[in-house]
Design brief:
The complex is a heterodimer of chains A (about 280) and B (about 140). Chain A has about 280 residues and is mainly alpha-helical. Chain A has helices at about 5-25, 30-40, 45-70, 75-95, 100-120, 135-140, 165-180, 185-195, 200-225, 230-250, 260-280; strands at about 145-150, 155-160. Chain A has a two-stranded antiparallel ribbon with strand order 1-2. The longest helix of chain A has 26 residues, at about 200-225. Chain B has helices at about 25-55, 80-85, 90-115, 120-140. The chains are: A mainly alpha (about 280), B mainly alpha (about 140). At the A-B interface, α1, α3, α4, β1 and β2 of A face α1, α3 and α4 of B. Chain B: Keywords: Membrane, Transmembrane, Transmembrane helix.
């Protein structure tokens, strides 16, 4: 295959992966590195360098809408970014010193974790009594989220209180480290940290995670760009493909049977994770 | 335990709650992300178009070769020279730099909005995030 044809093929595949990532709530980055390494035989470090750029681009494309609609909590995002950026820088620096086999193994494990997160029956726990939290009070992190009653189109605004910010910061450091190490958004780790630990409504957690992914990705991207682990043509094609795919996915969300798609791609995710683990452990 | 609030509360610099849609700085951050994202994507697209127009020769610092191999990787320090010589890879790299700087600009916009709203603690947190991003750049360059 000629380089130009290969770039066109990579862009097309990234449109599909960005679309699926958007439909499944995983983000396009989850599939990018496995596709580039397993299907196109590219170096895992260069694949991660390309993926991290696409993660930033995807977040910049999706976040403005979440901010306009009032889903994302900007105060929570910036507060938690202190932890994710520290983790991301540590992860990105560590990635430069780890072998490709170790990166494959860690990626395989993270994919299994993402599959488990997809299986988890997410329930909105917002609105229940929560322990008082000094950090959340000092920084005025509490907010309001919109809620749609089941079976109706009625949307009402409900206030929520943020709690366990210190726990959230600890979990976010780990999420940031995984993001920096593997060039993914780590939404599968960020959303539970806000949803389960800090008791943000699920929609707010998802939107805030999307906003944070951009800053976390930028911290890692700077390290990868400075270190020379980014191939411009590859990263450019991946970023454009993923952004177009993510936008397409958000439009298809209303018409595609996401439940069935989720089952199919759960299997795909598990197969990919086994492939990555085999590469790492073989 | 703090009971869950039962009714929406208004926006207040010192209040415990804030309505998402009218959140301080949200509009500015959204605008910055839109402009930065569009500009970065446009530069990446322009770079790819230039590369195709150059028949692929511009990929590898003007020497041709595999555009997807490790030899085509560029550092940020290659940016100035690449742009001066009209390399397609450098244009794409500039687009990626704009994309990477966009979230940081968003944090800066939020920090400024919070400072204007006299929310010193939040503005301080934004400054810490920005300093960490600068540190990331320094540490990456030292690698």
């Amino acid at each position: 295959m000629s380089p130009l044809a290969e770039i066109v093929a990579i862009t097309a595949v990234c449109v599909a992966s960005g679309c699926l990532g958007s439909l499944l709530g995983l983000g396009g980055g989850t599939f990018v590195v496995p596709i580039l390494t397993l299907a196109f035989g590219l170096d895992v470090r260069l694949a991660i360098g390309a993926s991290v750029i696409s993660v930033v681009a995807g977040s910049a494309a999706a976040s403005p809408r979440y901010l306009d609609e009032g889903f994302a909590n900007l105060r929570v995002a910036v507060t938690l970014e202190v932890a994710t950026v520290i983790g991301a820088v540590a992860g990105a620096l560590l990635a430069g010193h780890l072998s490709a086999r170790t990166l494959y193994t860690v990626f395989g494990v993270v994919l299994v974790f993402s599959a488990v997160q997809m299986l988890r029956n997410r329930q909105d726990r917002a609105g229940t009594a929560v322990p008082a939290d000094r950090i959340a009070d000092t920084l005025s992190l509490h907010g309001t989220g919109t809620h749609t009653a089941a079976g109706t189109a009625v949307r009402d605004v409900r206030p929520y209180r943020v709690t366990r910010t210190a726990t959230g910061l600890t979990m976010m450091t780990a999420a940031g480290a995984v993001s920096g190490l593997l060039g993914i958004g780590s939404g599968a780790m960020k959303v539970p940290a806000m949803d389960l630990a800090m008791r943000l409504p699920l929609k707010v957690s998802t939107a805030t995670s999307n906003l944070m992914i951009g800053v976390t990705g930028a911290a890692s991207a700077v390290v990868y760009l400075q270190r020379g682990d980014v191939v411009p043509a590859l990263a450019g094609a991946v970023a454009l493909g993923t952004v177009v795919g993510a936008r397409l996915g958000s439009r298809l969300l209303a018409v595609v049977p996401v439940g069935a798609l989720r089952v199919i791609f759960l299997v795909v995710l598990l197969v990919i994770s086994v492939q990555m683990l085999l590469r790492g452990l073989a | 335990m703090v009971p869950a609030p039962t009714s929406p509360t208004s926006t207040s610099p010192t209040g415990a709650s804030e309505t998402g849609a009218s959140e301080t700085g949200a509009r500015q951050v959204a605008l910055v992300l839109r402009i930065g994202g569009a500009l970065g994507a446009a530069l990446v697209l322009a770079g790819l178009a230039v590369a195709v127009a150059q028949g692929g020769a511009g990929w590898l610092h003007g020497a041709g070769g595999d555009p997807l191999g490790g030899g085509a990787a560029m550092r940020l320090s290659d940016l100035g020279g690449g742009l001066r010589h009209g390399r397609a890879g450098a244009v794409i790299l500039l687009g990626m730099l704009v994309l990477a700087a966009t979230p940081a600009a968003g944090v800066a916009a939020a920090g400024c909005a919070w400072l204007r709203a006299r929310r010193a603690w939040l503005a301080g947190v934004a400054v810490i995030v920005l300093l960490l991003l600068v540190l990331a750049s320094v540490l990456g360059a030292a690698e």
